Amino acid sequence: MLRNYITIAWRNLVRNKTFSGINILGLALGLACSLLIGLWIQDELSVGRQHPNSDNLYRVYQRLNQNGTVSAGEGTPGMLATELKQQFPEVVYAASFSWEEPHIVTINNKIEKQTIRYVGADWFRLYGIPVLAGSSASALDVPNSVAISRKVAETYFGDAQAAINQPIRFDNNTDYQVTAVYEDLPANAEARYDFLLSWSQFMTQKDWAKEWGNSPVQTRIQLRADTDPVAFEAKIKSQLKKHNVGNSASFDVQLFLYPERDAYLYSNFENGYPNGGRIDYVQLFGIVAIFVLLIACINFMNLATARSAKRAREVGVRKVVGAKRGALIGQFIGEALLLTFLGLALAIGLAALVLPAFNQLTNKQIILPASNPIFWAMLLGLGLVVGVIAGSYPALFLSSLSPVRVLRNSLRFGAGAQVFRQGLVIVQFALSMLLIVGTVVVYRQLNYMQTKNLGYERENLLYVMAEGELVPKYETFKQELLRMLGIQSVARMQSPLLGFANMSTFGISWPGKDPNSNPNFMIQSGGYDLIKTLKMSVKGRDFSPTFGTDSSNYIINETAAKIIGYSDPLGKPLTQWDRPGTIIGVVNDFHYGSLHKPIEPLVIRLGKLYPYETILIRTQPGQTKTALASLENVYQKFNPKIPFSYQFADSEYQKLYKSEMIIGTLANVFAGLAILIASLGLFGLAAFMAEQRTKEIGVRKVLGASVTSVVTLLSKDFLKLVLIAIVLATPLAWYAAQQWLQNFEYRIELAWWMFGLAGLVAVVIALLTVSFQSVKAALMNPVKSLRTE
């Protein structure tokens, strides 16, 4: 019996090649999309959870309450990790972790630009990173020590053991000794690094990191397994007040713990508490995967039902000769499973084919876990579920047909069956409408962020790092550049324009300041011609060498001016870290971070140029190529041994929204595939309707109906279904779009035309899909249509 069922299923599949091909392709596209999204979700969920001690790892965050405004962040004082480990026995390991810094690295006479991190001595034990050579306990205990990854060791020294005690020169002036080689970090690590330097070196080089009022680094700890994190958090909550930070009625600073396993996915904070993050995208694409798979299943049902009239007589004959309904259901479910597993096999091939491009787009290294039996068990389960769901309605419907009615050619499909099929089409296009609206909204928001006025002109603005001889000879470098073709102005700044959102201090004071208020200010140092080079509007003036007192003066932004409260800030006193000075300029608020966050108060001082700070260069409009050639010539004159590199301000700005760009691209792809699959389903239903109304169309043509009138007759029914889908989906789409936009402090307003455009696209696609079958039916010879079988 089973062999007979398989034979019948295969013959039906081969006999109806077009129908089978469309069905298998639709299922394969839906399954391939769901498979890729599932692998991406699995990779996202694993970040921060792959560490051996992940259940006991925590990041120490600060929660700030300033005059009732609450915020939170991972920036902490540079000495906090050491203090927590010394004072609290619950802390097994503690380590500070710096943000990335670019450096010139010389290894075996090979000069390259690399990024480095400074970490505490407990780092390897904290995260369970295998150390292949050297000691994990003492590798970073001494100054001028460096730990490198396996990749670096094998590239430059041959193997891990050979790298130990070898010298590496940083910035062409300081030799470091390799004290450890650690295993390469996994592909799904949140932060990747190949060079780690000791924390004592960081504290020696950066005196400002020793100020308890500054929060320039991250602090990570591991608690004992028997420690209650809630009780421990209560113990360290007021730790910074011991150092006179946040010790006032209107300003409060509290430390709190954030689990390492949640930090990646739940990175956004609102009013000082977690409020989503990348988990929103994980949930979003999980829903998209379900939508696409559901559309594929509905497509299968519609196509199977469209062919049901062809199978009705077969069902009648088999029932007459004694076939039971259960056997018929098993037969049709079996055929559905056969199609499903063929689609699943094709889906795996499609996924493997596009996976390299998918990885490049998402910046991941996902692989198909072909050697994992759990993966295959899940695929088997998915195939069974999809096959049963997709084949359930056709199986139940066909097995319920009366043999008498079928064999007497009196088969009519009831209103219930028709409503069900129409409902499937409405669901398909409602889901498609949601995806189309999402695509339009994401595109508009990304376009808004890319074109928004940031408060300075980022076009024709680029920067290079202050490295090598550019640091001691900056003024000479600047004057030579200004004499070159294509160069308009040059200035310097402590950090890239979009890179100092975590550089802040509570150490700002002024006469009349509320002693109970201690707001947090972003801080930055700059040089002469800074405002001129950025082309920002300013009340007052820029830093200038003609004013000898500017070394102790300040420029602030509008937000800082409002907090300070001077009616006219120009010429008024201001103190940073017991360094009194005068406000000489107030610049318009400009964005130095993501549009996800509001602009915060900023204080800029005239400071000394340190290695790896930023040199800003504004080029003449239309002369970028000439300016770059001039810049490279002058740069190589000062640094002949250092590779020349530069960054454009606008391209660096776009990197802030890399996640959103990826989401936008994926949304376009998945929305397009969902519409394609939905169109296949509509194609199937159009074929079914045309087949059911063959004789009606023949009669109408005999009575003089035109092709246009017949096409209109068949198309209007489907247009009604699509319009109903649009009406049902619009409020859901508006709500979903509004929720997503809440992630941005600066965002677009939803407009009616976005939903109108999405609806128009759905209508046009539906009409184009239906028109093929409608025109085909309208052109059919009425003699053939009315012929009695």
Q: Quaternary status of these chains?
A: single chain
Globular, elongated, flat, extended or rod-shaped: what is the shape? elongated
For the CA atoms, what is the radius of gyration?
Answer: 34 Å
- What is the count of structural domains? 4
Separation of the first and last Cα atoms: 32 Å
Structural class: alpha+beta
The number of helices is 25
How confident overall, as mean pLDDT?
A: 81
Q: Level of helix content?
A: 40-55%
Descriptive overview:
Keywords: Cell membrane, Membrane, Transmembrane, Transmembrane helix. Its main location: membrane. This is ABC transporter permease. It is found in: Cell membrane. Residues 20-238 form the MacB-like periplasmic core domain. The chain has 789 residues and is α+β, with helices and mostly antiparallel strands. The protein has 4 domains: 1-47 and 289-412, no CATH class; 54-264, no CATH class; 423-453 and 658-789, no CATH class; 468-641, no CATH class. Helices cover 49% and strands 18% of the residues. The protein has 25 helices and 26 strands. Strands 17, 18, 19, 20, 21, 22, 23 and 24 form an 8-stranded mixed sheet that branches. A hairpin with a 3-residue loop joins β8 and β9. The longest helix has 38 residues, at 325-362.
